[in-house]
Amino acid sequence: MTAARSLKAADDLVSAGLIEPEKLASIRAVADRYAIALTPTLVSLIDRTDRQDPIARQFVPDPAELLTTPEEHADPIGDQVHSPVKGIVHRYPDRVLLKAVHICPVYCRFCFRREMVGPQGDGTLAPDELSAALAYIREHAEIWEVILTGGDPLVLSPRRLAAIMRGLAEIPHVKIVRFHTRVPVVEPDRIDAAMIAALKESGKVVYIALHANHPREMTDAARAACARLVDAGFPMVSQTVLLRGVNDDPTVLGDLMKCFVETRIKPYYLHHPDLAPGTGHFRLDIAEGQRIVSALRGNISGLCQPTYVLDIPGGHGKAVIGESAVRGDGDGGCYSVSDFRGEEHAYPPK
Ligand code: SF4
């Protein structure tokens, strides 16, 4: 069955056959706490005969979300401590996040901002709040890049998006505008001529970072939407979250990276899952993640290699956490370098 509209309530999911009726009470409890939305495109991708379906696992709520562990945090990557004005996160010197909207077309069950996004979340910046956010960017000449994230910035209408882009056009030190989005995958028809015209409105270099976690998300329609963006002159990069039961397998992850490259999207970040509330069932050990990422090395093209990163809790930024191929300190002897088969080789200090 294909839904004609987005599914946003526990009862909708029962009616669509995506959760068993006996789970309804617990899923209603999840829905009271965290937003739910699945677009018709996503619903059509779910294999209802597969109880482990990796698309369903990402978007259909699970009673496990009611379990919060002591190490989990409502703001796991520390946005709030780096937010000088509403809608801005200024964590690194040369770039800021501009969170103009806290709505998404779909709500990922592992979302690191799940306490902020959704209809009960932080909403959309009011005009005076957006003006204050743009004023902050204007007053900080060190800001070279503005990253629109969210929420999903491509849920904004082309008219509102164009207004933001015109605001950024007036700030000469901003050279790069980056969008983080799931829209080309979950609502590909939104990437139309009006949206593309809005994205061009600033005259800046615009990058699009696509969030996708499983190769089945890269449908023909999603690839066509990405092609419209790339053909319009927007370079694309990817971001993926390493998730238990979704892509914690080198073959699946490798296939996803190949899909990106075939779609002219350069694999960029592979995120270790954050300590967001109620997401323990998605997390895996860092050592396990390192083994999965190491298995990609040498076995698939260098173009397909993402950078495995962790956001340090408390707002301390990203750390690259892939296994190093180099051992030893070279002091008075040799480094040991491992090849993609795991065999060690000596390398001189200089
Ligand atoms: S699209 Fe991004 S911000 Fe929205 S729910 Fe998914 S991970 Fe969170």
What would a concise description of this structure say?
The protein has helices spanning 10-15, 24-33, 40-45, 54-59, 127-139, 158-169, 183-186, 193-199, 220-231, 250-262, 286-296; strands spanning 88-92, 95-98, 145-148, 176-181, 205-211, 236-241, 265-271, 307-311, 318-320, 326-327, 335-338, 344-347. It is an alpha/beta fold and 350 residues long.
Task: Describe the model.
The protein has 350 residues and is α/β, with parallel strands linked by helices. The chain is 29% helix and 16% strand. It has eleven helices and twelve strands. The protein has helices at residues 10-15, 24-33, 40-45, 54-59, 127-139, 158-169, 183-186, 193-199, 220-231, 250-262, 286-296, and strands at 88-92, 95-98, 145-148, 176-181, 205-211, 236-241, 265-271, 307-311, 318-320, 326-327, 335-338, 344-347. The strands form two sheets. It has a nine-stranded mixed beta sheet with strand order 1-2-3-4-5-6-7-8-9. β5 (205-211), α9 and β6 (236-241) form a beta-alpha-beta unit. The model has no long low-confidence stretch (mean pLDDT 95). Bound molecules: iron/sulfur cluster (SF4).
Class by alpha and beta content: alpha/beta
Bound molecules: iron/sulfur cluster
Strand content: 15-25%
Strand order of the largest sheet: 1-2-3-4-5-6-7-8-9
The gyration radius over C-alpha positions equals 21 Å
Number of strands: 12
Order of helices and strands, N to C? HHHHEEHEHEHHEHEHEHEEEEE
Mean pLDDT: 95
Q: Given the structure, what is the number of helices? A: 11
| Biggest sheet layout | 9 strands, mixed
